[in-house]
UniProtKB/TrEMBL annotation:
It comes from the Bacteria. Belongs to the leucine-binding protein family. CDD domains: PBP1_ABC_ligand_binding-like. This is Branched-chain amino acid ABC transporter substrate-binding protein. SUPFAM superfamilies: Periplasmic binding protein-like I (SSF53822). Residues 1-24 form the signal peptide. Pfam families: Peripla_BP_6 (PF13458). InterPro entries: BCAA_transport, Leu-bd, Peripla_BP_I. It comes from Noviherbaspirillum cavernae. The keyword Amino-acid biosynthesis does not apply. The keyword Transmembrane helix does not apply. Residues 27-393 form the Leucine-binding protein domain.
Amino acid sequence: MFGKTIKRVVQVGVALSFSVSAYAQQEVKIGVIYPLTGAAASSGAEMKNALELAADIINNGAKGIPDLPFSAGGGLPNLKGAKIKLIFADHQGNPQVGATEAERLITQEKVIALVGAYQSNVTATASQVAERNKVPFLNPESSSATLTQRNFKWFFRTTAHDDLFVQNFFDFFKDMEAKKGIQVKQLGAFNENTLWGNETTKLETKLAQEKGYNLVKTITYPAKSTQLTSEVQALKAGGPQVVMQSSYLGDAILAMKTYKELGFSPDMILANNAGFTDTEFIRTLGKDADYVITREVWSLDLAKKNPLIKQVNDLFNSRYKANFTGNSSRTFTGLMTLADAINRAGSTDTEAVRKALTETNIPGSKLIMPWKGIKFDATGQNVYGSGILVQIIDGKYNTVWPFDLATRDVTWPMPKWDQRK
């Protein structure tokens, strides 16, 4: 009799355990850390929208887009239809806040993975917390090269990094001379002074020396500056033909206004993405944003060669009344990549998800990015990430390099401020 009682208790315990497990599988909690307030709040809002669209597609489907993974909806099929639940955290552009929020999401919210964090200096601290807690960290946008040079086991980056992006600048100069007969020799560097901007400056200095360009002026300014007059005056005095610039949104807008105010008109401003590709950049500056060339990873005009770009952008635009940017398109792709790994793992066990990420091999035909695909090397870097250059003309981004992908010829040089209509 006593033995039967014990057996029955065990059976009830097993049933209860199964019930809790089945319930837990209804949601897959993913923590996302972005700047939702502060100087980069506009960028953060766009990326939050992209994440919500990706989660909605996974959970509820996207009719008429059969080539997009998870477009059938119904959640993650290998987890019995478990739905993605995003838990947002605001790092405010502060690395310490980013680390604290990562800790909270892992220990209190019990997320199984993290996505973030746009600004490289915040990604650096937040991903350290994830590494220590053995939780996968998927980074869609941060481009500081050192992020994948830390021998981390739990960090994965889908975008290409600044080693490649800065190299693209110099490849572009070489192609301009060879194919357009335009010589560039005098360069200036104008970059914000956090991890991203400082690393970019080092790369630009190194490559300029190696490739025989004269870097006539190098200026790093305090991030989130309220005035840049003295810095722009010093830059102007150096007389660069081309200014290579790394700025987040507020600084990018302020710099352009100061250039106009001081009549600084180099042949070209060659921007390193970030603030120059935020929707608010063109919205705020209007025609004064025209002619800038910026490195990019995505452009709507590439839909002519990849219909998936327009199909998914139409979903985004219908919901948020804005097009994807290089930032938001990468964020969307990052969550879709993480979901792919979780689904292949067939589990919410963090080690199983990490292992699945190491085995990722998504073909370019399944992406809205102009990449060959997504496959991570031993450092967690996507080996297939690549960059393009776009130029703003009449308030729109146009692909101008590589020339075989270009949808419009480069306008060079930029018209002087007093010669613009």
